[in-house]
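tool=predict chain=A
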Amino acid sequence: MRCTACGHRYSLLKGEPESYSAEYFLEAHRNWFNNPNTPLFQKVTDGLRELPAGARVLDVGCGKGDFLKYLHGQRPDLELCGLDLSPNQDVPGITFVQSLVEEYEPTEPYDALVTMAVIEHIDDIQGFAQKLSDLVKPNGLVVVMTLDDTSLLYKLGRLFRKFGINIIYNRIYQAHHLNHFNRVSLQTLLERADMELVEYHGHNVPLAAIDIPATGLLQKVLRAGVWGVFNLSELTGNTYLQTLFMRSKR
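tool=predict ok
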């Protein structure tokens, strides 16, 4: 379904939503989790450079904690916490909490919050956005990364589907992606949750992180095609992913 006002797309699911079992991490999206987006990690780390020593940073939907481990290597002076439905073992400098974000009540708000590739999985996006704002201090930084429904890859997926070629479409509109944001719809959502835009960053994911549902020669052809799309999207500014740096106005 598509909102005629802002262009936001969302999925109407039949039956139960996809679960996030170990298979989700180890098989279906193995490449994504085995090839962290370190250029994005560095971009976000640079965005946190003004945080003083001892500042508290929360990663909502931290997965295996790859970003927090990267950030700790750059800023060991920060107090880091990762929140996820999946369990993680604490490591030096990082505390992990297993909880739903809507049920998480920290003892005090954070100085900054990061959430990557999470909001598209959320049903109640308005409640989620407000919770992000509530979890940070006044003037705290909130960094949100998600897919861009207006990107070249999405446009090609919808175009090819008209000709009966569904392999891209089925991958980008898969069951666990409930919401498909464009820049306007994402920024509007976050602004309505008492945040204001600091910086917009359009980008792609490392090619090695793409999980292609094919094998052999077809997989090589499709990967070459994705490489071409990514390069063209960088030139045209229609990249696959978007990251918004927001500031709490409360």
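The longest helix spans residues 216-236. Residues 61 and 155 are 27 Å apart (CA to CA).
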